[in-house]
């Protein structure tokens, strides 16, 4: 998972949410007829899911869309009210 520390659960939650968003976007962006990317074996679907998750985490670590920071600031504000 991205750079969140155990001492900051709000940031971890925000980064996890953005990573989930990225994973779904990557899943939707993959063409249905993309059957030649792997060997089309029994583990293809499972591996593709792990690969999407790894890519999503890397995107968040790299700054992503900035959603995690926006969500974090919102959660922090709500938590302090």
Give the strand content.
under 5%
Shape: elongated
The percent range for helix content is 55-70%
The class by helix and strand makeup works out as: mainly alpha
From the N-terminal CA to the C-terminal CA, the straight-line distance is 28 Å
What does the secondary structure layout of this molecule look like, with pairings?
Layout: H1 9-29, H2 44-61, H3 67-80
Helix pairs in contact: 1-2, 1-3
Keywords:
81 residues, mainly alpha, elongated, 65% helix
Structure overview:
The structure is a single chain. With 81 residues, this protein is mostly helical. The chain has a domain at 10-15 and 41-81. 65% of the residues lie in helices and 0% in strands. The protein has helices at residues 9-29, 44-61, 67-80. Helix 1 (9-29) crosses helix 2. The two termini are 28 Å apart. The mean pLDDT is 84.
Précis, in short:
By secondary structure, the protein is an all-alpha fold.
